[in-house]
Amino acid sequence: MFAAPLRRARRYRGGGHRDRGRAPRAPAWPCWDGGGGSCGPGTPLCAPNFPVFLTGSIAMATAGRARPPGPPRYTNRLINEKSPYLLQHAHNPVDWYPWGQEAFDKAKKENKLIFLSVGYSTCHWCHVMEEESFQNKEIGAIMNENFVCIKVDREERPDVDKVYMTFVQATSGGGGWPMSVWLTPDLKPFAGGTYFPPEDSARRVGFRTLLLRVAEQWRQNKDALLESSQKILEALLAMSQIRVQGQQSPPPSEEVMATCFQQLSNSYDEDYGGFSESPKFPTPVNLNFLFTYWALHRATPEGARALQMALHTLKMMAHGGIHDHIGQGFHRYSTDQHWHVPHFEKMLYDQGQLAAAYSRAFQISGDEFFADVAGDILLYVSWDLGDQAGGFYSAEDADSYPTTTSSEKREGAFCVWAAEEIRALLPDPVEGAAEGTTLGDVFMHHYGVKEDGNVSPMQDPHQELKGKNVLIVRSSPELTAARFGLEQGRLSALLQESQRRLQAARAQRPRPHLDTKMLASWNGLMISGFAQAGAALARQEYVSRAAQAAGFLRRHLFDPASGRLLRSCYRGEDDAVEQSAVPIQGFLEDYVFVIQALFDLYEASLDQSWLEWALQLQHTQDKLFWDPKGFAYFSSEAGDSSLLLRLKDDQDGAEPNANSVTVTNLLRAACYSGHTEWVEKAGQILAAFSERLQKIPLALPEMARATAVFHHTLKQVVICGDPHGEDTKEMLRCVHSVFSPNKVLMLADGDGAGFLYRQLPFLSSLERKDGKATAYLCSNFACSLPVTSPQELRGLLCQ
Question: Which residue intervals define the domain Spermatogenesis-associated protein 20-like TRX in the entry (predicted)?
Fold first, then answer.
């Protein structure tokens, strides 16, 4: 038998993710989400002419993660790294190397295969494989004898991860983390998979046996494997190219938008929101698309449905267990249709995108519910993911010790509750309710708490949550208040007091691991979340926090001498910010998300220094990543000989595709600078992705949204006025209160020597009318008649 031929990964229709055939929480699926942390079965694979001993159903792994006893017996090279994920493996009996020349030279000198293991620090199944296999000294001895073993943090090196995940997906149609790939000494993949149990079972060969068989194949069939690896590389190169075909032009936006809307509508869950049955992912890119579709089709039934789908999904998520009702913020995804039982890790990129989505929902609907959820997210990030220097940490783990004396970690232990715990914390009688009613009774009814736990065994195959409750809003405030004979204001106060007590009790539990790596790209997404929320909710403290984080990026993740971004920095000893010995240069996504953040921050703060930096970074991005032949941007820059492929991402996932976001960035940059070549570049990106956008825009909802922005032309909303004047502030509040996807905001403050006036000379011709703050809507170098009242301005913005 032989492995499947190379093919494109199947598409998961429930929200633009790659098809991972996802399954309920905690069977032995590798972690996966196309951007950092959900789960789905990554089918193991092998190259043509390699025996299929990597295939088969995935066996169940042990659920608990044991506390290591005493001082470490082993220490390897990873002890010198900064990545929390690599440091987690620094005391394995495996002779791990970080990705780098030392490992490559050793493989060539000793003519050894490379075993590449890729994961991240909050990946549940990465923890499992480490405990079962990488901490096993016998398996470690086999690895050390036969392979040069390399460990990669996918969040540090997304370029390495993408190359080998492309191989895994192309040969199996799935993938995930931990990703396990065998390479020739010249780094070409020939076999791989995801999580492997340590020992053989009736259904599948174990990791120990697999290592021995791969080593034996290398000894006996080296030439065949080398030939096969070369053919695989050539096939991957051919199939991964995204380039403009002939004289292709950007696809028609109406067609792309209509198709994407229909595909989302077809997969929409009418009852619980979201775009699949289970598992369910937040997918903010889908919600942003729907908001834009509504804004362009407000008067149509389709527009109304788009808005209803987005708002209902956001409400159901906020009520669900995916939302942490005690500690705030959102978990990675839900394992069930009802948004109830989550995979408990929390990722920074989710918080940033969801804060922005809930802020837009408030902007559109005026419903304070959405503003409260946005504030809840930002409170969590400020408290739990914020570094004292101003940056944001990457993630919080799903696993933790249930108590200070526990010897094994369990998923969700920090977040779940037994009914008796809640009753003990909330014993107070409730005045005005039926006799004998306690605070616990009210809270448990509202949040669906059951005496024997509210988690279905189907969602808990390892019984980690047996007898426990994941809080989920099961009753509206009106119904809960009516059931207990309470006024709604009184109910709200009781629930807040209950949450306060549970939060204090939870603070005594051992906290999950915190990944204190700080990434430029994810910090960019979070800055956008704070800036957009600050503008839409009129909360200056959010704008200030965004500016603090942007200042952090400029100090710690930017090299002013070269004008280049760095990928990552780390919390070190005494909480100081540290950099690795050889800093990792920024990737395309770092530039794109930071540039987007700086534009958002300028619009919220009107500080032109952020605008100036954004345009500088856009020029640098063009030099480092633009493909002048095939158009669009490569994910990594040229010149790294260890990267076999230079790729362009082809879909929006847990994070939007960098090329999708950069289309809008380029259009904004052109509006702020007058450089029309950026508009041309935006069109060339859309042309390069034209076929994909017309056939399956659901894979690229953010880019589909950008096609509409491109074809409708961005409007420059110019407010001429004194930044400190109340009339100017009133006009700015009007602009921020209206959701308009095709506008950019700028303040013409009369300073002719300022950055904006130097970039856009036409601003000097715009005047205040009758000495009042005056608004103009400009596009294609022509401006509307001036308006001086917020009501008139609102009318223009809603056209």
Answer: 75-236
